[in-house]
Amino acid sequence: MSEIDRDRELEARLGRAPREAEPARDLWPAVARAIADPAAGSSRSARWRTPLRIAAAIALFAGGVVVGQRWERPAPLPAAAETPYGTAAEVQRAGSEYVTALARLRAGGVGEWDQGVDAALSTLQGAAYELVRLRPDDPQAGRILYTVSEARLDGDGTPPTVRF
């Protein structure tokens, strides 16, 4: 029997099926009781649903608090940073943190130096690129970018591969 024949036979059987059927029992009394008194129709397991829902909500809330505290968010800029002088102060603060981190790297173990030097040069290159964008006609800014970019290259002219 082909698939088309089976489909036709199924359609014929469905066409002969009754369009309406009476339920085996009258369902309305049970529905009316459940609407009138929801606790009356509750089973033994239904009594535990509300406390379980409350416990799940508390666990979900506590988990959200823990995750929220562990995610590091950058500190919002102070209101003064919204002005040109405030932004300059923010650049100064970030630069000071960069220099402090380099000093910690220098004081740290030798094993960290390769990764730290590459990260430092990458950051310095990004800063030099932004400086050139701020002052495109300044030849000193262009030389800084060129020098930092060259410092990042290996002897064969490719950027170094540093494994973290």
Outline:
By secondary structure, the chain is mostly helical. The chain has 6 helices and no strands.
What attributes does this structure have?
about 160 residues; about 65% helix; mainly alpha; 6 helices
Portion of residues in beta strands equals under 5%
Average pLDDT across residues? 77
Percentage of residues in helical conformation: 55-70%
Number of helices: 6
In angstroms, what is the radius of gyration?
A: 36 Å
Quaternary form:
single chain
Termini separation comes to: 65 Å
Output the structural class: mainly alpha
Number of strands: 0
Q: Report the major sheet.
A: none
Order of helices and strands: HHHHHH
What is the 3D shape? elongated
Are there runs of 5+ residues with pLDDT below 50, and where?
none
